[in-house]
Amino acid sequence: MACTDHQPLSDAPVTARIRTHAPNRLGAVYSALYCFWSARHAAATAMQETLGARFYSTLHTFFSGRPATTVVDQPTTGTRRDAYSVVLFNQSTKNALVNDLSSTSDQLLDALLGEQAEGSTDFSSALRAGEAIMVENWSPERLVTNSSAFCPVTF
Q1: Closest CA to 142 of 103, 105, 113, 101
Q2: Do 53 and 69 meet the contact criterion of CB atoms below 8 Å apart?
Q3: What are phi and psi of 149, to 5 degrees?
Q4: Rounded to an integer, what is the distance from CA 108 to the centroid of its chain?
Q5: Spatial strand order in the sheet of 83-89
Q6: Residue 31 in contact with residue 14, Cβ under 8 Å?
Q7: Taking Cα atoms as reference points, which of 80, 101, 106 lies closest to residue 12?
Q8: 113, burial (CB in 10 Å: exposed 0-12, middle 13-18, buried 19+)
Q9: What's the distance, Cα to Cα, between the start and end of the chain in Å?
């Protein structure tokens, strides 16, 4: 992951921040993760706003007998429904993030930026560590309502 044949996305909003810490393959992974987390946040926010608008419009129609023309002050929960875990690995594993349900994309990235690429890769131990995290943090409520992302990353 220390090789520089792949680097962080050149046009991403956090590229300069990532390049300061990881101008290499690991930085490319961090860049991809950040884009994924940001896209998931945007999609979840849009979904909450859409569902909130429909809900309040339906309530307005039900109680007033006429369709709502605008909906104001729609409350949204602001909580993410995804749980993120990241296992960094080389010859050993490190749980960099475990079952994180509340950090922003920037906070998630900051949790990873202190790590440097080094050593060899032990994919088997990374997969075992990921499995242990999923078993330890399993929640039956997520079966239908949440998705859980696990991403092993070589460092």
Answers
A1: 101
A2: no
A3: -105, 130
A4: 7
A5: 93-100, 83-89, 148-154
A6: yes
A7: 106
A8: middle
A9: 6
The amino acid sitting at 9 is: L
- Determine contact, residues 109/97, Cβ cutoff 8 Å: no
Output the 3-class SS for the chain. CCCCCCCCCCCCCCHHHHHHHCCCHHHHHHHHHHHHHHHHHHHHHHHHHHHHHHHHHHHHHHHHCCCCCCCCCCCCCCCCCCEEEEEEECCCEEEEEEEECCCCHHHHHHHHHCCCCCCCCCHHHHHHHHHHHHHHCCCHHHHCCCCEEEEEEEC
Tens of pLDDT along the chain (155 residues) come to 666 666 777 887 888 899 998 888 899 999 999 999 998 888 877 777 776 666 656 665 666 666 655 444 444 445 566 789 999 998 889 999 999 999 999 999 999 999 888 878 888 999 999 999 999 998 776 654 444 555 566 55
Contacts of 140 (CB under 8 A, 6+ apart): none
Q: Compute the distance between CA of residue 144 and CA of residue 88 in angstroms, rounded to an integer.
A: 28
